[in-house]
Amino acid sequence: SKPSYKWRRVLLKVSGEALAGDQTQNIDPKVTMAIAREVAAVTRHGIEVAIVVGGGNIFRGSSWAGISGLERSSADFIGMLATVMNAIFLQATMESIGIPTRVQTAFRMSEVAEPYIRRRAVRHLEKGRVVIFAAGTGNPFFTTDTAAALRCAEINAEVVLKATNVDGVYDDDPRRNPNARLLDTLSYHDVTSQDLSVMDMTAITLCQENNIPVVVFNLSKPGNISKALMGERVGTLIGG
Ligand code: UDP
């Protein structure tokens, strides 16, 4: 029988910013390779991994709508397309080291990827494939953090693991305040009432309503992704 780990099925959220690493290019191949290697290590233990990718390294709808007068809905579709680029890059990287990976998009792009079909996604996971969900929720005015919470609930994953460039959630901005403390655990209420910039409100309340814990952790520390995926304590745990 399989040894038991904390999580059986997880939803890893990788923001666009995290994919960019410290590169001036949109994507740092060292980051995608690190993600691929660490995901490979945990899928070997039978942990099922689904990934939602962001797109902020390429295009963020809300900022462009503000600057250019572009209609928000149009800007957001460009943002969603940006997530597809990241997804294809990540899929190619994963497959280059032998991890079977499927991309599913929230709106149809049949020549590029499968459409999102919940049951099919679950089937892929059961077969040990990694599934990357792209194009967010498929709707403007949402974020990929909300897509992560939504897909997590839909596929009955047990946790949202939010990979970022910081160690977790602090009680103040660590870039401005050197005495800012890294918080170990937080309740959903702490996040919403103190306006801690963890996730947008839609995403965090969706997690709360569905009792989905969220772990915010630093993906640039080697080994951290596998630790988070295996259920070891890293970063900040939000729940309860
Ligand atoms: N987006 C959207 N609907 C969604 C998810 C994303 O319209 O369900 C658009 C939105 O414009 C957003 C962009 O895609 O700015 C990139 O996603 P996000 O900002 O969440 O990426 P991240 O911050 O994780 O890199």
TrEMBL record:
Keywords: ATP-binding, Kinase, Nucleotide-binding, Pyrimidine biosynthesis, Transferase. The keyword Repeat does not apply. GO terms for biological process: UDP biosynthetic process. Pathway: Pyrimidine metabolism; CTP biosynthesis via de novo pathway; UDP from UMP (UMPK route): step 1/1. Coiled coil: none annotated. It comes from the Eukaryota. Its EC number is 2.7.4.22. Residues 9-218 form the Aspartate/glutamate/uridylate kinase domain. Transmembrane segments: none annotated. The keyword 4Fe-4S does not apply. One of its GO terms (molecular function) is ATP binding. GO terms for cellular component: cytoplasm. Belongs to the UMP kinase family. This is UMP kinase. It comes from Dillenia turbinata.
